[in-house]
Specification:
Elements (H helix, E strand, L loop, with lengths): L8 H62 L3 H46 L1
Helix pairs in contact: 1-2
């Protein structure tokens, strides 16, 4: 036979502390799930932005190629190529800034969500 466990004052305190730890662990897990969801949604937005940019670039390359093939002289083809390169670089710089802002926002939200249970 095993000895009986007494749940005197110390035993009831241990049970209470155990419930607090369990509640705290549950809160941390819920926060982790919410944080992961926030991050996933943010990265989905970034992914959608990158795909849209890539599609736009592909469309503009096809358009530029067709214009160059229809050019009546080498001078005209070079002017089309020059304009295409200029707009491509400008578009890349603009898109880089947009993606940087989106990434910063997602990172800030992620870190902020992680810090919530620590502040409580």
């Amino acid at each position: 036979m095993e000895p009986a466990i007494r749940a005197g004052a110390g035993g009831s305190r241990a049970v209470t502390e155990g419930h607090h730890m369990s509640d705290y662990s549950t809160d941390i897990f819920k926060n982790f799930l919410a944080t992961a969801t926030t991050a996933a949604k943010g990265f989905q937005g970034i992914n959608a932005e990158m795909l849209a940019y890539g599609k736009g670039q592909l469309d503009s390359r096809i358009e530029a190629m067709n214009a160059m093939l229809a050019a009546e002289s080498v001078k005209d083809a070079l002017a089309i190529q020059s304009e295409f390169m200029k707009t491509s670089v400008e578009s890349f710089i603009e898109e880089s800034g947009k993606l940087s802002e989106m990434t910063t926002k997602v990172t800030s939200e992620f870190v902020g969500s992680l810090a919530k249970p620590m502040a409580a």
